[in-house]
Structure formats: C-alpha cells, structure tokens
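Summarise this fold before class:
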Amino acid sequence: MSAPRFHWTRRAGMAGLLLALVAWSSPGSMAAHAADEPIVVFAAASLKNALDEASAAWAKETGGRSRISYAGSNALAKQIEAGAPADLFISADLAWMDYAEKNGTIRADSRVNLLRNSIVLVAAKGSGQRVTLEPGIDLTAALAGGRLAMGNVDAVPAGKYGKAALEKLGAWDRMKGQVAQAENVRAALLLVSRGEAPLGIVYATDAASDPGVEVVATFPADSHPPIVYPAALTRDAAGATRAASFLSFLRGPAARPIFERQGFVVVGAEKRS
C-alpha cells in the first residue's frame, strides 16, 4: 500500500509544480514579474552622487527600483548603439544625445533638457594654488612639471568643454602637451584628489562631491558651450512606463533640492529647442 501512496504523492507534487509554472508564465504573471524588474539607467559619471540620492528618493516614494550604470557619455551612447539593455539615457552634453537620436537609439519625443553645470579648475585640498583664468593664461608654473587632468578631449563632454575653454583663453596650444586625459570626468577628479595631478578640469558638481580637492578657479561661462544634460528614453526600453515615471520624478519638485545641493542648475520642464 505504501508504494502506490508514494507514487500518487509524487504525481500530485509534479502536477502542482506544472500548475505553478503555467500560472507564473501566464501573461498577467509575466507582466507582474516584469514590473518588479529594476529599470536600467545609463548616466554620465558626473551625475553619480545626485542620481544615487534621487533614485533612492524615487524608490521610497513609488516603490520603483533602478539600476544605474555610470560612465562617460560617449561610452554609454556607443553601448546603447551596440544593443546594451538600457531604459533611460542621461548624457552630460547635447552632442552625444544628438548622436543617439541620429542613430535612432532613443525616443526623440521623450527627450528633455534636465540639468546645467559649470566647469572649474581644481587642485588637491590644501595645495594653496591660486589661478586667475584670463586670456593668455599659462598654467605651466602652477603645474610645476605635473599634468593637467581632464576627460578625453575628443570624446568625454567635460574634456571637450575644458579644451574649448582653454582654446577661448588662448592657452590650449601651450597646455595640450601637459594634459593627462582620463576616460571620464570622475577619473580625472580622482587623479587630482590622489595627488597624481596637480590640477584638473572637472565639473563644479564633481569638485563639490570630493573633499580631497578644492576649487582654484571657475571658467567663465562664455569660454565654452553651455553645459546641458539631456535625458531620453531608449528606443528599446523594456521598462518604458517605469523609466518615464523616473524621468518625471527627476524633473519634479522632489528631485530639485537633491540636484541643487550637488551644485546642478535644474532646467525643469524646459525641452530642447
């Protein structure tokens, strides 16, 4: 009698398992499972402190979750183009968002300008460095044989802004041989913070995030193109509705003080022209 009872129990267990699998794989259950997945955000490295805090606030308010990948805007745009699974892209300049739009990897109708920033010259905390950024400036003496840390000047937005500013001030031709180019602006910041480079050009928000550096000077706003952070949903966003909710939160009143504490200027609801 025991053998049949065991056989019946095993069959019942298998049937229950099959029913559970069918239920889990039903359209409604699959949709519920997908809704539980975190959205994937590709964001410029300079956004890390502010966006981590904003993401936590969004999660507390809505229960939504996000997984954020930080890197240079150029690298992120290329990864999305290559098929990386991102739901939302936030760039540190208009050019790389333009690149993504031209290649059809973002939803152009979702694109908005989110934030503004500025670039500064930084040195290690307590260095005593003082520089006046004026036409004809020569940073050679201040570098004292060291390097000027910047993001890659051909690809990383902060590097491109920095090069433009030095060109406008008539200093680029003298300085270009003394530049240490980094893969993103946070890497450039780290070179200065660790004392591996005496000076660096980073965003004002980066300088505010690292107690190991101090601002030596701020570049004139008219020495470089306006620093604008655009955001857009990606074309293949799997969590488009939740990503749109997150983007709406980032543009709203709850996120504004988070960004402003980090030194960003919030564009708000302004769309690109």
